[in-house]
Amino acid sequence: MQTAAAPLRPLEGVRILITRPKAEGEFFAKKLRALGAITFELPTIEIIPPEHTDPLDQSIRTLSNYDWIVFTSRQGVQSFGEQMVAVGESITGLSKLKVAAIGASTAAALGEFGKHPDYVPEEFLSERIITGLGDVNGKRILLPRADVASRVLPEKLRELGAKVDEVVAYRTVTPKDLSFDQVRAILAQGIDIVTFTSPSTVRNLAKVTGISLRALLKHVKVACIGPVTADAAKSLGIHVDILASNHTLDDLVEAIADEIRTV
Q1: What are the C-alpha distances in Å from 183 to residues 37, 142, 217, 233, 234?
Q2: Domain 48-172: CATH class, spelled out
Q3: Do domains 15-45+175-262 and 48-172 have the same CATH topology?
Q4: What's the CATH number for 15-45+175-262?
Q5: I need a labelling partner for 88 at 20 to 30 A (CA). Which of 79, 128, 165, 231 fits?
Q6: pLDDT confidence of 127, banded at 50, 70, 90?
Q7: What does pTM read for this prediction?
Q8: Is the distance from CB of 250 to CB of 226 less than 8 angstroms?
């Protein structure tokens, strides 16, 4: 008796371009390949240390002065933790603070440093974190973030009377070897979906391709991890086909699979 063939994995043969930094891109690629996707990695951002670490170092040495520290990305946690070690401060200093984290990945990164976040908003947007901090009037809040982070969160906190210290924990730059020819060559291989996981991933790709990015992606579906990233794409005239509901990598993978199932 002949048995029925096993169903194909939902992303079987789908060719997906990943624009995350190299180390993070590999993690994302594994998730997609597990569902049958063929992945191509083209990092459009590179994570590097701040030009000057004095403000970051000072904030680390005076952690006890803060009422809250707010991390908005996994990379922010990692960079901050690494710098704590570099300046000779114990990582256990985080355990004595009230810490908020945006997103499951950011919360998990804190866990790797032995700190469970005191607050994680249900919706993974910077603006949504404010309500969970309580009355911030007169409170000192530390924001270790990227050099190109959105201004929305610190401005809203200051409007509510908070004393906010923003420090650059890391910088995002365009990789030196990223070129228009490289982008065009990869897209020529028949990419079905391109993924963007931060505004910088799409902006940097646009930077190296110029006004031709929209034309280059004309026959490619665009998938974004959340509304902030989607807005960055739309501002460049790029149509967004797939949007993760909860702004995590797992949700983005699920959204891509759902899109393919409906085709």
Answers
A1: 19, 38, 11, 17, 19
A2: alpha beta
A3: yes
A4: 3.40.50.10090
A5: 165
A6: low
A7: 0.84
A8: no
Neighbours of 74 (CB within 10 A): 20
Q: Could you state, in order of their start, the residue ranges of all structural domains in the chain?
A: 15-45+175-262, 48-172
Q: What number of other Cβ atoms are within 10 A of residue 98's Cβ?
A: 16
Two tokens at 225? 């991890």
The answer to whether 195 touches 41, Cβ cutoff 8 Å, is no
Q: Where are any strands of DSSP class E within 62-208?
A: 68-71, 99-101, 140-146, 163-173, 193-196
Integer-rounded Cα radius of gyration of the chain: 20
Q: For residue 251, what is the enclosing H or E element?
A: helix 249-262
Q: According to the per-residue pLDDT averaged within each range, which of 5-14, 81-90, 103-112 is highest?
A: 81-90
Find out whether 229 and 195 touch, Cβ atoms under 8 Å: no
Q: By the 8 A CB rule, do 165 and 56 touch?
A: no
Q: What residues are paired with 140 via a beta bridge?
A: 163
